[in-house]
Amino acid sequence: MSPQAAGGHKAGFVAIVGAPNAGKSTLLNRLLGEKVAIVTDKPQTTRHRILGVLTRPAAQLIFWDTPGLHEPGRLPLNREMMNRALAALSDSDLALWVVDGLRQGPEHRLALEAVRPLGGPGRRLLAAVNKIDALPDKTALLPILAEIETAVRPAALVPVSAKTGDGLEALEGEIIKLLPENPPLYPEDALTDQPERAIAAEMIREAVFRLTSREVPYATAVTVDEFKAQGDLARLSATIHVERDSQKGIVIGAGGARLKSIGQAARRELERFLGTRVYLRLFVRATRDWSKKPSALLEFGYRDG
Question: CA–CA separation, 84 vs 66, rounded Å?
Fold first, then answer.
């Protein structure tokens, strides 16, 4: 008798939360064995909550990768990012708090306070201390583990490395233990609910993050204007939006060199994901102060209508 027929199948939603740059997106991609969330070494790369589905014979783990928990200040874009992260917490069966094992600053404390209500009796909280591969001495973990155990009393506390995969099998097992009994909620071959256009926009934005610096990555949004599949070729046209003309010049670069590099990097990722050749055209447009305008946030997908 299958687990589903026996009534023992488990399925549920798990919100991956934590401070910026704790490794949440890297962890999701490693768990899935496929890249669905963009990753850079800059904080606050993730702006949306990204769904990823991991299907096992007796369980289906449905993850929400969320923007890093941070003090949003007065910028509307940052407030929307925080709202999406906190909404994922309330909408999920479990929370997986990813802790940076190398550093704990003010944003670590903010994340701790956000997840604290989920610990203790009836616990819906797991904690994963990430980046253990970079620790020169594993005994450095002990005070971090003790602090987390005392502060939030998680149902499970697992040291992991999203980079190497160490500890992820144990983490997956702990998550499955806490999931509710449900039939699969997504088809067996589902990986994400993100449409290809949305993933394409994110992969282009990832290239901008990697190839620009200072304020430029955070002033960037991407819209896909055309997406056509023609046999073994996908034709895409996209616009990179920045907030000022000076940023537009930086993205384009001398003689268009940086824009060409961005296009090449994005095309490689798109071809890997789509499994086909990609023809990509990129344009750059200054949409002044878009991150402060509700109408622009709605247009660029950072605000619900």
Answer: 7
d(CA 102, CA 109): 14
Spatial separation of the C-alpha atoms in residues 101 and 152, rounded to whole Å: 16
pLDDT value, residue 122: 77
* Residue 4 scores a pLDDT above 60: no
Q: Let me know if 190 is exposed, middle or buried by CB neighbors in 10 A (0-12, 13-18, 19+).
A: middle
Look at the chain and count its residues.
305
Which pLDDT does position 225 carry in this prediction? Answer: 97
Query: Phi then psi for 185, rounded to 5 degrees?
Result: -100, -15
d(Cα 39, Cα 19) in Å, to the nearest integer? 14
Residue spans of beta strands (DSSP E) within the chain: 10-18, 50-56, 59-65, 94-100, 125-130, 156-159, 221-230, 233-242, 277-286
User: Structural domains in the chain?
Assistant: 10-178 (3.40.50.300), 196-299 (3.30.300.20)
**This prediction's pTM:** 0.91
- 3-class DSSP assignment, residue 269: helix
User: Which residues 6+ apart lie within 8 Å of 196 measured at CB?
Assistant: 227, 274
Residue 197: strand, helix, or coil: helix
CA-wise closest residue to 102 among 161, 44, 187: 161
